Amino acid sequence: MDQAFGYFLNFLENSNRNGLALMAISILFYLSVFHLILYIKNRESFFLYYSIYAFVNSVALIGRPYHSFLKDIYFSYPEFFRLSITPLQFISFLVFSYFLIEVLRLSSYYPRFIRFYGYYTIFISAVYAVFFLGVFIWDGYTLMRQFYFFVFMPITFVYMIIGVFLIIKTQEKIKVPILYGFLTIALASFLFGFMTVEKGVAFTDKYIYIFYLGLLIENFFFTYSLAIKQKLLFKEKIKIQEELMFRYKENDELRSLLNKQLQHEIVQREEKIIELESDAEVERMARIKAHYDRQITELHLQSLRSQMNPHFIFNALNSIKVFLIDREKDRAILYLNRFAKLIRLVLESSRKSKITLREELDIAKLYLTLESIRFEGGIELNIDLAEEINLDQIIIPPLLLQPFFENAIWHGLMNKSGEKWIHVCLNKNQADGIQLSIRDNGVGRKAAHEINEKRTMKKDSIGMSLSKERLELFNQNESVWYQFSIVDHESESEVPGTEVIFELGM
Are 339 and 321 in contact (CB under 8 A)? Predict the structure, then answer.
């Protein structure tokens, strides 16, 4: 038994001469090409990180195997490989860490820590680059290696311990094989590094089998975990597609049912009016006709509201499609849940001829929340309400404000970069009515029109004309005086954008 163990140990200690090193390098190069192809096909960043990681390690080990064509390549450019070994190991650690971050989705679990780690990698890379340049400027090769072994590696070891603890706390199914592979290569790398620092070539050749074995075991676990990851991603895509189709079918059925009900009610009211026109009693006829005119006006308002719903539903479903294309599952699910809630509120309000301003603003807030999800940085919404105003006492047509918020986003804020905001302000006006202002910091109507004219597919807004017609019918029906005007802020002394001012007079 002791003799067999001695033969095995002797085989490991001569790994650079008996083919073990060449086998490890070949496996790394194959994995590099394989994962690069997977990245091109799937566009998942963890495939690219692992491809770079495997390639860097295969290049770093190219001069190890004796009696092979790789040694000839190494001796053709000995100075290049001598100077690049430590930088390649440095790159290997960083790329490997980002592979773990992506494949385990650590950014979604620990966003602040990952952001801090990103700053650290940028800083440590800049410092190391200075030491690397020093190799050519002041012959700082020894200083560069000392920084790598006695500064970078200890700090990286601390991050490794923290990373293991954080990975254990995640709910990812592939964390167990990832941990096994991660711990194997980490322990093998640190053990080999600290054992051979400042040692000779003979000592390094003798114990490099520790690193080779770590690589082989690591790649077994990672290949297994990536296979599981691909299977999970496929199942998630199928699940999202099924849920999206179900939601789309459900919303389409609700919209169709609502339109049929409205059309049926309008036909019934018109038939009753036609029958009543034959009544000979003029006074009685006028009274009954006025009653049914009021009902038709209400139905007309409902019909106009139903025209706005498909317009918004189309935009919302298009946003969900974009998230699915970009493989943003979490955002797609969040958007679907909020979208379903908004559809329910819209359908409830569509059955009413009037709602309170508080209910309308609640719907507008939810709508803006949904639209804001699609923008990097979001859209800031501020509502400034005067103390003497009671939102529950102000009655307006349902979904009156939604087209103006939509115009502010699609024609104003979408066409600009940087900070995006919408301010809503309510105050008493001079005529004891209510003044409601919707102000955005978009590019303005003139610039938006010019941008839209240049597009192949132009986006036309029908919400403005519908809102004017709805206000006229609402004023007639409720004996109120509601109107709105649009102000373009274009002077250099003020923030550019568009402001819609509603005058809600009694």
Answer: no
Q: Is the pLDDT of residue 438 over 90?
A: yes
The residues near 268 (Cβ < 8 Å, ≥ 6 apart) are none
Per-residue pLDDT, 439: 94
pLDDT of residue 256: 81
State whether residue 487 is helix, strand or coil. Answer: strand
Tokens 């955005």 belong to 440
Contact 350, 367 (CB under 8 A): no
Instruction: Determine which helix (DSSP H) or strand (DSSP E) holds 482, and give its type and residue range.
Output: strand 481-489
* Angle of the 209-276 helix axis to the 78-103 helix axis, nearest 10: 40
Give 149-183 as a DSSP string. IIIIHHHHHHHHHHHHHHHHHS--TTHHHHHHHHH
Burial 66-85 (b: 16+ CB within 10 A, else e): eebebbeebeeeeeebeebb
Q: How confident is the model at residue 3 (pLDDT cuts 50, 70, 90)?
A: low
Helix (H, G, I), strand (E, B) or coil at 268: helix
Confidence at residue 457, expressed as pLDDT on a 0 to 100 scale: 47
Length of the chain: 506
The confidence score (pLDDT) of residue 437 equals 94
pTM over 0.70: no
Supply the DSSP symbol for 380: E
Residue identified by tokens 């025209």 is: 307
Beta pairing class for 395-396 and 434-440: unpaired
CB of 20 closer than 8 Å to CB of 209: yes
Q: List the strands of the sheet with 421-428, edge to edge.
A: 380-385, 421-428, 434-440, 497-505, 481-489
Structure confidence at residue 214 (pLDDT): 87
Residue at token pair 């009543």: 276
Nearest CA to 177 out of 219, 223, 220, 221 is that of 221
Measured CA to CA, the distance from residue 297 to residue 484 in angstroms comes to 21
- Dihedral (C-alpha) 278, 281, 286, 292: value to the nearest 10 degrees? -50
The answer to whether 411 and 458 are in contact (CB under 8 A) is no
Is residue 357 within 8 A of residue 391, CB to CB? The reply is yes
**Amino acid identity, position 237:** K
Identity of the residue numbered 482: Y
- The yes-or-no verdict on residue 271 having pLDDT over 80 is no
φ, ψ dihedrals at 241, nearest 5°: -60, -40
C-alpha span between 44 and 476 (Å, rounded): 58
Whole-Å CA distances, 107 to 30, 169, 179, 432:
29, 13, 17, 53
77 phi/psi in degrees, rounded to 5:
-135, 60
Q: φ and ψ at 279, to 5 degrees?
A: -70, 130
- What does the angle CA 421 – CA 427 – CA 430 come to, to the nearest 5 degrees? 135
67-104: pLDDT as tens digits: 777 777 777 777 777 778 888 888 988 998 999 899 88
